[in-house]
Amino acid sequence: MSASAKNEDFLFPLCFVIYEVASYMANDAYVPGLIDLSKSLNISPSGAYLTLTVFFLGNLLFQLIIGPCAERFGRRKVLLVGACVFIGSSLICAFTTNFYIFLLARFIQGSCLPSLTITGYATIHSMFDRVHAVKTLAWMSCITILAPSVGPLFGAIILLFAHWQWIFIILAIWVLIILIPLYRCMPETIGNQREDFSIASLVNHYSCLLFDWVFMKPVISLGLLFAAMTAWMVAGNFIIVIDFHQTPMCFGIVQFIIFMGFFVGTQLASSWIEHFSLRTINSIIIMLVALSSSFSLVSALLFDKSLVCLIIPLLLLTIAAGIALPLYNRLIVESSPEPMGFKISLFTFFTVAGCLLGSVLINIFYSNLTHFYIIFSLLGVLFVTINGFSYQKSSLESREIDG
Asked: Where does the UniProt annotation locate this protein (predicted)?
């Protein structure tokens, strides 16, 4: 491969992940400002939670249509339209004083994310083989994790000097700046053969994927991991500030420590993919999640006022998620012959559904730290149950994914 080709292969993932961080910051960076948002728009804490939930809902509802649209009309066009709408909705969030308009703008903002994630990840999987793809996804995840880890700290720093509205203004400018190089370096994939966009075709492709357990198990598993992490991201600020009587800046620091575990996990995945079997790596992921759930239950019963005992199970789970994300991401692509856009759409749909599940569980059941521990533990137990008791050697390895 020539130096020019290598640079092109690196440039697109880099521009893509910078945009991806900005889109995720739309949730993570303004979490420290939820209390100020509540006062500014004269809403209750449950109303503030709702601004997070509708973001995930908007993201979820458009997942299954964006993939087929990208296969039909081209990934670059879909990316460009989504980015422009994201910028506009971010500015509305910044300048409106009406809570219901704010909610609508948040919903639209969330609905733009599939145009980024589906087109971007589909393009990366089309560009690289398995080992190169896992390594690329691993270093990308290291940067992406800046959103939940550095995002609250970034938002808290902005709040020291400006109102919460400036978080959305900065994000709009960020996306506008990165959009130009991203659009120019993104390879177009549309050719003479375009996917059938009929309802019958969509139903047929998605049905084949939904009833394929080899495809669905890593999809569901990753969704559960994201549900647990989202439960923390939604409730974390209130847990640190109210239950532990700390500052939003402290929450930002705790968040950074926890999500450094994700960074460690991605580095382990990048290293292990060339040296260990997928079954071995998956067993380590299951063990980490099991330890996380067990420690969380013990903390709920015995150490509910210890900040260290809160951090430990969260750190174990983020390490497991960091290992699982690039690995499961590639397995999902290799496990079925269905078109790339449909596979990525369903994968991101369940990932976002997991995020929505975590947010909804906190909205409905969370009122104190013990409730959070229980929600977090149950999600981990469900993950372990699906993976620990349903793994069959014939599943992944029969399709030669274990290579």
From this structure: Cell membrane
pLDDT in tens, 97-150: 899 999 999 999 998 888 888 888 888 888 887 778 888 888 887 787 767 667
- Does residue 301 fall inside a structural domain? yes
Q: At what angle do helices 199-210 and 340-365 cross, to 10 degrees?
A: 70
* pLDDT for residue 287: 93
Calculate the alpha carbon distances from 113 to 106, 120, 179, 260 in Å.
Answer: 11, 11, 14, 24
- Indicate if 153 and 220 belong to the same structural domain: no
Q: Are residues 306 and 390 in the same domain?
A: yes
**Is there a domain that residue 202 lies in?**
no
DSSP 8-state symbol, 276: S
Query: Cβ neighbours of residue 233 under 8 Å, at least 6 residues apart?
Result: 27, 28, 31, 148, 255, 358
Block residue for tokens 């910028």: 87
Longest Cα–Cα distance of the chain, Å, equals 63
Residue from 56, 147, 62, 64 nearest 103 by CA: 56
| In a shared domain, residues 218 and 268 | yes
- Residue that is written with structure tokens 């270093």 in the block: 139
Higher pLDDT, 112 or 341: 112
Whether 168 contacts 106, CB under 8 Å? no
pLDDT, one tens digit per residue, over 166-208 is 999 999 999 999 988 888 888 766 544 555 567 777 888 888 8
CATH code of the domain containing 273? 1.20.1250.20
Mean pLDDT of 370-377: 88
Range of the domain at 301: 212-402
